[in-house]
Amino acid sequence: MSGSRSVQFSTSPLLASKTPVWRSKFIVAAMALGFLGLVGRAAYVQVFNNDFFQRQGEVRYARTLVMPPSRGKIIDRNGMLLASSVPAPSIWANPEEMERDPAKLKELAKLLGMSASALDKKLEDDDKTFVWLRRQMDEPDAKAVLALGIKGIYSHKEYKRLYPEGEAAAHIVGFTNVEDQGQEGVELVFQKALAGKPGSRRVIKDRLGRVVETVGDVLPPEDGRDIQLSIDSKVQFFAYQKLREAVLEHKAKAGSVVVLDAHSGELLALANYPSYQPDKRVNLSGEQLRNRALTDTFEPGSTMKPFAIALALEKNLIRPETVIQTAPGRINITGSTITDAHPHGPLTVNEVIQKSSNVGTVKIAMQMTPRDMWEMFTEVGLGQKPNVPFPGVAAGRLRPYKTWRPIEQATMSYGYGQSVSLLQLARAYTLFARDGEVVNPGLLKSDAPVQGVRVISVANARAVRKMLNMAAGPGGTAQKAQTMGYSVGGKTGTAHKQEGKGYAGNKYRGVFVGMAPIEAPRIVVAVMIDEPSNGKYYGGDVAAPVFSEAVQQTLRVLGVQPDMAVKPQVVTQAVEESF
Amino acid sequence: MMRLNVLLLVAVVLSALALVRSQYETRRLVMAIEKVNKESALLEVEHQRLLVERRAQATPQRVQSLAQQKLQMRVATPAITQYVSMTPGNAGGASGGVAK
């Protein structure tokens, strides 16, 4: 009994199969086939058609993120910010899904800076799914809006440009629109460099939207380059400030000032009035937007005389001491009469410039050929577009010499008949400041030495500079150009404005171009005041004082030592140091 | 033979678990790095904003009006300036040539 109880497992009768063997074999085979199918499928998914499935997976989970570049800054020559981007979120709403709790909406309207009714109006159409509520807010305000927690209110990341120098540098720097595209000035000219290139990368996001993996290569964004201008923001500010004061004082229509570094040709300042705030642009008029110093051309008037004289010196027709008879203050050229504002007697060439005698200049100029004068004017840049990359830079007008009639040659010698922009005028005067070389104005800071183009000899350039110095001295037309501590030289110009076909009797343009210190000029400054109408209108009265102040401040900022004795007012009790 | 198979099976399972874990760890770290990167970008932006703000507080215009109105200062002129010139070759020297 016990024997039958302890049956061996392998011989257990229960296991004795009564089914045919083929059935178990069939099961095994079926399972094997099943596995084979799985293996085949796995191989298909993992090996043969891997690409397809990989792609499908990525389509479901991978996203391409665009990495926006940051816009480059604009800085001045000392690295001071002139324009920079800061985040300025824009707030938008989805009226369809918005909850409308009156108390919260009131709060929202207040934060957005609009009336509750204006907000209602924006939100009234609840078919819409997207409405801008306010673009480019200050970041803290936008955070406060989101903190209200109203459903259906979102923020969109945007940037806006800030311009710390405000209206003083507005015409140089320009501005961007709400899409961050440059619209004016340097912002427009260097748009491509400033904007940079967006990058991108593929990532895998999980179901909560978190990035869990980066796929493939990352294309990093190329941030916009910083643009360093040659402008010195201090010089720019002072120049603008003094210009503004002068325009207001003389009730003028407008004014411009250009300050050039005589060594390098770099623009240290370029300002116009009226101006505008580049980051608050409401009700802007064309008058405010115009960069007059570059785009407006005018007849340069007497500021052209030194070029006629320089050419005559170069041709050995005169010496600075040569006496020219200017009495009786009139001269007749082919039937037309040219007069002096104040008749003089015999004047030396020096005095012709000093007193700005039209008659004297014409007498000298008529000894030369139109072609020589044309070449001189062209070489100093008249009728040529200045090489600054700005929109709307004017080339001015200089007619071909073959069409000059004698009277025109005569009037052009004292600046009527051709036209220039203020920048061109400043550039032309680098001829005297750089001992006979003209140099191209530069807008970007550069450390490379500049190569000027020699037009007249060193000796003649110095001789003219001496005349310019006399013009600003006792007996000259530009005594108001003098400035404390620095010797200056320059030329006034007062031109009747053209109106229609003729000249307007009572509309003038006062101009002054000069340089300082006169022995080794460091800067060239040109000032133009348009339609001064408060009694004074001579360039020597309206423009020269701006020159004087601009020179004073600029040379101080540049750290140039005074070259003239000043009565010191320094109270010092310091003991002399002994060596 | 059987023992070897079991051993291999255990090894495979362990390695699979390790793979899962390391994948998980990668994702966690990627998320962390994303978060930190975002934070760094925000700080960078904040830094830029502060730079602009600092500059806006120190524009020549503001400095001048504050100096003149609040501190009763006036613009320096050559008359009240003592000029010191440095002789070349002596730059930075303790006894730089002082000349008026």
Structure description:
- The complex is a heterodimer of chains A (579) and B (100).
- In chain A, helix 15 (358-365) packs across helix 17 (406-413).
- The N and C termini of chain A lie far apart (133 Å).
- With 579 residues, chain A is α+β, with helices and mostly antiparallel strands.
- Chain A has 21 helices and 23 strands.
- The chains are: A alpha+beta (579), B mainly alpha (100).
- The interface between A and B is medium-sized, with 39 and 28 residues.
- The average pLDDT score of chain B comes to 83
Structural class of chain A: alpha+beta
Q: Please indicate the percent range of residues of chain B in DSSP E strands (runs of 2 or more).
A: under 5%
- Overall shape of chain B: it is rod-shaped
Helix share, percent of chain A? 25-40%
SSE inventory with pairings:
The complex is a heterodimer of chains A (579) and B (100).
Chain A lengths: L1 H4 L15 H28 L1 H12 E6 L6 E2 L5 E7 L2 E4 L8 H11 L3 H8 L7 E4 L4 H9 L5 E4 L2 E4 L7 H4 L11 H5 L1 H5 L3 E7 L5 E9 L7 E2 L4 H17 L4 E8 L5 E7 L12 H4 L2 H4 L1 E2 L6 H10 L8 E3 L4 E4 L2 E4 L6 E3 H7 L2 H8 L4 H10 L26 H8 L6 E2 H12 L3 E2 L14 E2 L3 H14 L17 E11 L2 E15 L6 E8 L8 H4 L1 H15 L21
Parallel strand pairs in A: 2-10
Antiparallel strand pairs in A: 1-8, 2-3, 3-7, 4-5, 4-6, 8-9, 11-12, 11-23, 13-18, 14-17, 15-16, 19-20, 21-22, 22-23
Helix pairs in contact in A: 10-21, 13-15, 13-19, 14-19, 15-17
Chain B lengths: L1 H56 L2 H10 L31
Labels describing this entry:
heterodimer; A: 579 residues; alpha+beta; five-stranded antiparallel sheet; 21 helices; elongated; disordered C terminus; B: 100 residues; mainly alpha
Task: Summarize this structure briefly.
The complex is a heterodimer of chains A (579) and B (100). Chain A is of the alpha+beta class and 579 residues long.
